[in-house]
Amino acid sequence: MEELYTKTDLAEQLSVSVGTINNHMKSGELKYVKIGKAVRFVESDVDAWIRRHYPIKYMSKSITDEQIEGIKSSILGE
Fold first, then answer.
1. What is the C-alpha radius of gyration for the chain, rounded to an integer number of angstroms?
2. Measured between alpha carbons, how far is 33 from 43 in angstroms, rounded to an integer?
3. CA-wise closest residue to 28 among 13, 16, 45
């Protein structure tokens, strides 16, 4: 089973406000699951949302050390 996140979890991890999370929920851009009165977010839905709306933050999590070294080499001409 995938990990579930709360609004506060997402806001803290992404350095955005809970209001931003609410806005994306209301617009339908961020999928969520209701469990009783609680709202939770499935990890795969959050990842897809981050890729669409925060590509720079997603890229920093997905880039490997080898890719960083390759970028450095091409910039420095090594």
1. 16
2. 11
3. 45
Q: From residue 56, how far is each of 39, 59, 62 by CA, in Å?
A: 26, 5, 10
CA distances to 18, 59, 67, 76 from 39, in Å: 12, 27, 37, 48
Residue 51 tokens read as 């890729």
Q: How many CB atoms lie within 10 A of CB 53?
A: 15
How far apart are alpha carbons 71 and 14 in whole angstroms? 25
The C-alpha atoms of residue 70 and residue 54 are separated, in whole angstroms, by: 23
- For the entire predicted model, the pTM comes to 0.66
**pLDDT tens readout for residues 33-71:** 999 999 999 988 988 888 777 666 556 566 666 766 776
Amino acid at the residue 78: E
